[in-house]
Amino acid sequence: xxxxxxxxxxxxxxxxxxxxxxxxxxxxxxxxxxxxxxxxxxxxxxxxxxxxxxxxxxxxxxxxxxxxxxxxxxxxxxxxxxxxxxxxxxxxxxxxxxxxxxxxxxxxxxxxxxxxxxxxxxxxxxxxxxxxxxxxxxxxxxxxxxxxxxxxxxxxxxxxxxxxxxxxxxxxxxxxxxxxxxxxxxxxxxxxxxxxxxxxxxxxxxxxxxxxxxxxxxxxxxxxxxxxxxxxxxxxxxxxxxxxxxxxxxxxxxxxxxxxxxxxxxxxxxxxxx
Length: 274
What we know:
Blueprint: H1 3-15, E1 21-23, H2 24-31, H3 38-50, E2 54-59, E3 62-67, H4 69-82, E4 93-99, H5 105-117, E5 121-124, E6 127-130, H6 137-143, E7 148-154, H7 158-169, H8 172-191, H9 199-214, H10 233-272
Antiparallel strand pairs: 1-3, 2-3, 4-6, 4-7, 5-6
């Protein structure tokens, strides 16, 4: 697990609801159970500051970092998709983008990853489609200097035609297999964590669960049920995720609070020394 990706998960799943800020010492302590060393945490934090995701600030407990408004919006959108709190209906229309792709290969890859995260699938190098409009897509394309046109379109062939578009834009067989693999890999790790397990073990297991589930934001556009195959594996995988994420949440929250409180106590002790 990369430190930068873990920090996004940490802020999104635990720190966003706690003011979106934390001292450096707490960040280090909270990523330690995931096997991420302090130097890697500090390097990732510095990188996220340069990229405009975090803002340094001085907290009562010492140096810390606050989510920028841009990061908060991205994490809120991600949380709505992770926990599926947003509207999942479909009015039969696609959001269609025709763009002039960047010449540079790395820039094209980065743009493709960001569009995929926002729920768009590629029909060809210039044409991207989604079943719902991405809130940040205009800003993303403008930020990258990409010329584009955007349309709302309905397929003349009705639902069968729309499903054909979906099959072109996304490999549903691959996504289905990924959901099955997710459950198979996570099940033994999660069942090993019981009521007798410590808070740190529950936190680490839940963190890895959410981290693995979050990768589907870059794979699965969360299509409306009308466009999905019958007995879609993503449905049972979501039930599995919800059950274990909720089961482990109280213990994970206790561990987070312990780490934040410990960092504050250490800072107060240092401040009281003559």
